[in-house]
């Protein structure tokens, strides 16, 4: 049995990426041990060299890294602000990598992003895929979910093409993690 950790890189209480994460996690085979975490539980000051020198690495960066260590694979959904990761999530990644640079070592990752627009947060996906590789992760699949409010209603993907793509990519991810 594989242990899968899921989290959305958003600090919004109404995040569409949390909704997408819930859908993806619920689609996993029943023999997977799944856990979702809320990144808001890992509140951190904004990263800066001076802050690190004066205060050291915050305990929450260590806690986040240690949570990730317990799992074989990750499903991460990310949002996009101005063509990049949200400042909140980027800060969490920055601090965690200061605690342990290879905090994603050996982790297989399904990386997805939803946006209300047609771009499907493709720019943040591209950035995260590169960054997660630097930190030792292996991004097995990516999913760009465009026009979220047109394609996702009442917790259900209503676009048949996206539905087929999600099933195919989750199947590949499951095969890679079994």
TrEMBL record:
GO CC annotations, alphabetized: cytosol
Gene3D superfamilies: 3.40.50.360
Domain NADPH-dependent FMN reductase-like: 3-142
GO MF, any single term: oxidoreductase activity
Name of the featured protein: NAD(P)H-dependent FMN reductase
Lineage: Bacteria, Pseudomonadati, Bacteroidota, Flavobacteriia, Flavobacteriales
